[in-house]
Amino acid sequence: MTNFETADVFKDLDVNDDPYSYFEYLRGKGPVTPLALRNVVAVTGYDEGVAIFRDDENFSAIDSTTGPFLPLDYDPSLDIDDQIARCRQENPFANTIINQDLPDHNRSKAILNGIITPARLKENEAFMHTLSDQIIDEFIDRGTFDAVSEYGQPFAQLVIADLLGVPKEDHGQFRDMIGDPAQLPGALGGDFDFSKNPFVGIATYFATYIQERRANPRGDVLTRLAQQTADDGSLPDVMEVVAVATFLFGAGQDTTVQLFTGMMRYLAENPGLEDRLRENPALIPDLVEEVLRLQGTVKSTFRYVRRPVTVGGVDLEPGMHVMINLAAMNRDPKRFPDPTTFDIERKNVRSHVSFGRGIHACAGGPLARAEARVTMERLLPRIRNIRLNEAKHGPAGARHFDYLPNYSLRGVSEMQVEFDRID
Amino acid sequence: MVKITYVEHDGERTTVDAQPGESMMKAAVSHGVAGIEAVCGGNCACGTCRIYVDDNWRAKLPSPGESESEMIDFCGDPDPRVRLSCQIAVSEDLDGMEVTLPESQQ
Ligand code: HEM
Ligand code: FES
């Protein structure tokens, strides 16, 4: 077992398999605690993390996805904001909506707000029901499915395709453009191959859609996307719109897939729970929230310190990376009593931070919640006696999974579920 | 400085000195008013910065814009006094204003 004192959380496979014990070790040292490596300070306290999320002046989001592997060697003799700006110019992956600071972030957010509107979400939910049924049809006779590749991935991908108005005839191609979760920012050791990323293919589709709709508007969702203006009222470049649209496929894919695996796991480990939900589907949203709290996919995100500031009694200096451990904040006993107990009746469960806080808070929160709820609403009337495949994952009490090797995302590469069909 | 009082559901009152131009959400959050969650940081995307404004003060506020109205509908808060505090800019006219907060922002 790894010695936590010297563990390199950015490389260590034991910590990756059980990050929660490591976070409790960190919590024992304080809600904000420097790691003796890579100029990183770890946050496990709920209040401290929320305070950082709300402070856009002292912290930059440029490292939110990369953490300390951000290609920026801070030189204290030069202006830090200039260095951040240069790093963004040189590294496009440090200039997406999730990495931008004010005021640039306002521009991307305006484009995004035009895409994810309450009205659009309602229409999208109707599509989710049909899609869920279709995907369940593919495995219902088999009595088994992989919650990652045979449900989660195609479902999450096509929900976003529909949200953005991708024509039905192209859905097949989008289903084939699902990325390998091993090649994502946050990969252990800091290297991932972005060229293997399906974004390039997706971006090509969207560039064509947007150009075509700008030339020939036709009153569909893609036309609205093509005509969406930025915060200053101007029409953005085609590639700016493409960047925001493409980003949604990355942000909404593996994250949501792991919400499904989390729910399957709790259903399998808590016999009786599925009956309770079947009898009273109004409890499904409470299940979703408690799974998000205990198994939120983003275990850690990052902020870059750009001004001297004190949080939780710890002085932070420009150039430091703050590792905001959402998974630890969600288990802060000061906020959530008896934090490791799974309890769908928790009163304040919705104040979990699995979707972050502040200007970068997840834009897809309402969508992900709807995806999880619809999935349960469609699955529970059709399958029962939900179990995990013991040959693959071991018996209850001694389960094992292949966890994604990633210091930012928590998830499994496969989850083989077994069930009985309800006729 | 503009004095605004936020009254929590349990009756706890916090009076803050707000800056003209900042949002009523920012004024509350930066003074530690616990009943304003503001998950989305003021992007009109979460509906967790809701306040209840009585008629006399309501009349002094610009009416909600399209995105604020849509988000209010989306959260389904039935109280007719509801507004989103992130969409209201503090101005001198609001000096002395009192608003109440929902029992829960969810
Ligand atoms: C259970 C599923 C999901 C989880 C746990 C999740 C989690 C998160 C978290 C923690 C952040 C903030 C990161 C930070 O502040 O550093 C975030 C941002 C974001 N998420 Fe999600 N997400 C999920 C699903 C989705 C979906 C389905 C979409 C797309 C429709 C989406 C789109 C986004 C976008 C666009 C941002 C960046 C927002 C900004 O920077 O303004 N997410 N997500
Ligand atoms: S802070 Fe999210 S809507 Fe006001």
From TrEMBL, chain A:
Pfam families: p450. Keywords: Heme, Iron, Metal-binding, Monooxygenase, Oxidoreductase. One of its GO terms (molecular function) is heme binding. One of its GO terms (biological process) is cholesterol catabolic process. InterPro entries: Cyt_P450, Cyt_P450_B, Cyt_P450_CS, Cyt_P450_sf. The keyword Oxidoreductase applies. The keyword S-adenosyl-L-methionine does not apply. Belongs to the cytochrome P450 family. This is Cytochrome P450. The lineage of its organism: Bacteria, Pseudomonadati, Pseudomonadota, Alphaproteobacteria, Sphingomonadales.
UniProtKB/TrEMBL annotation, chain B:
Its cofactor is [2Fe-2S] cluster. CDD domains: fer2 (cd00207). Keywords: 2Fe-2S, Iron, Iron-sulfur, Metal-binding. It comes from the Bacteria. Pfam families: Fer2. PROSITE patterns: 2FE2S_FER_2 (PS51085). Residues 2-105 form the 2Fe-2S ferredoxin-type domain. GO terms for biological process: P450-containing electron transport chain. One of its GO terms (molecular function) is 2 iron, 2 sulfur cluster binding. Belongs to the adrenodoxin/putidaredoxin family. This is 2Fe-2S ferredoxin. It comes from Novosphingobium malaysiense.
